[in-house]
Amino acid sequence: MRPTLQLLKSGRSAWKGPYFVAFPNLRDALTNHVPIKTQARSCTILPNFVGIRFMVHNGKDYMPVNVTQDMVGHKLGEFAHTKKRFTYKATKK
Amino acid sequence: MHILGVNLPDSHLARFALTNFYGIGHKTAHRLCARLQVHDKCKVKDLSPFQVTALASFLSSPATSPTLPRYPLATPDYVPPSPNTPAQELQARFAAIRAKRVENRARRGTDPIVYKDTLKDIKVESELRREIRENIAHQRMIGSYVGRRHAMHLPVRGQNTQSNAKTARKLNQMDRY
């Protein structure tokens, strides 16, 4: 979906504006391509985050997320999966 | 009757038969009927050829078709012309009414407020299916949670998976439509 649609559908009232975290090393990350380690999964991806590499916490490790223009209205945590894929292994009894 | 590949049963009321189109529900169907001056109790077999062609041409692409005109409601003492009047006479009558309306507007000289016609925003059939497919593909492409769940044929909106995920297992696919 277009980023504006995602921002509108977010569940947060429009008059409050999107929830985001002001990262102190944002400019450094843009110029030197240093990944930003963060536990703020609920941070909305803003247009000025595009091109930055984040390491988003998923409860255990930090997963790399390369932000592109299409990801703008979504949250960081959507791209760091928290559960392992379910596989069924028949138990031998 | 077949309109744009969809069969509308002749005995059904036109207002509810229009819901057979993918992307038209009860509200849009009623609005379309009002715009085309189709009576609430009019059946599909009683639709005039003008109405059928107007409906078909509008639904073929609502966004790019010319706006369907909004006519004022008839006064209580209005007597509609009999079905046997020739088309020329109907068109002449309509042209006379339209000329009078244009003259009144010119005399008043005010700029009327132009309301956006929301009927043009509707998407039907193949366009709507294409949009849904693109949305799912977009979610998968960016690698989000929603895209992953569609790819795994599992529920997307946080429903239980320990039991009861039958519809999701059947319908949640990447090529859903």
UniProtKB/TrEMBL annotation, chain A:
Record key words, sorted: Ribonucleoprotein, Ribosomal protein
Keyword Iron-sulfur: no
Cross-referenced InterPro entries: Ribosomal_uS19 (IPR002222), Ribosomal_uS19_CS (IPR020934), Ribosomal_uS19_SF (IPR023575)
Record-level GO cellular component terms: mitochondrial small ribosomal subunit
GO molecular function annotation: RNA binding; structural constituent of ribosome
Any one GO BP annotation for this protein: ribosomal small subunit assembly
Family assignment from sequence similarity: Belongs to the universal ribosomal protein uS19 family.
PANTHER family per the UniProt record, alphabetical: RIBOSOMAL PROTEIN S19P FAMILY MEMBER, SMALL RIBOSOMAL SUBUNIT PROTEIN US19M
Protein name as annotated: Small ribosomal subunit protein uS19m
UniProtKB/TrEMBL annotation, chain B:
GO CC terms of this entry: mitochondrion; small ribosomal subunit
Superkingdom of the organism of origin: Eukaryota
GO molecular function, one term: structural constituent of ribosome
Localization in the cell: Mitochondrion
One of the GO BP terms on file: translation
Chain residue ranges for the region called Disordered: 157-177
Keyword tags: Mitochondrion, Ribonucleoprotein, Ribosomal protein
One family name in Pfam for this protein: Ribosomal_S13
Record carries keyword Ribosomal protein: yes
Signal sequence interval, chain numbering: none
Role description: Component of the mitochondrial ribosome (mitoribosome), a dedicated translation machinery responsible for the synthesis of mitochondrial genome-encoded proteins, including at least some of the essential transmembrane subunits of the mitochondrial respiratory chain. The mitoribosomes are attached to the mitochondrial inner membrane and translation products are cotranslationally integrated into the membrane.
Family per record: Belongs to the universal ribosomal protein uS13 family.
Name the UniProt record assigns to this protein: Small ribosomal subunit protein uS13m
Taxonomic lineage: Eukaryota, Fungi, Dikarya, Basidiomycota, Agaricomycotina
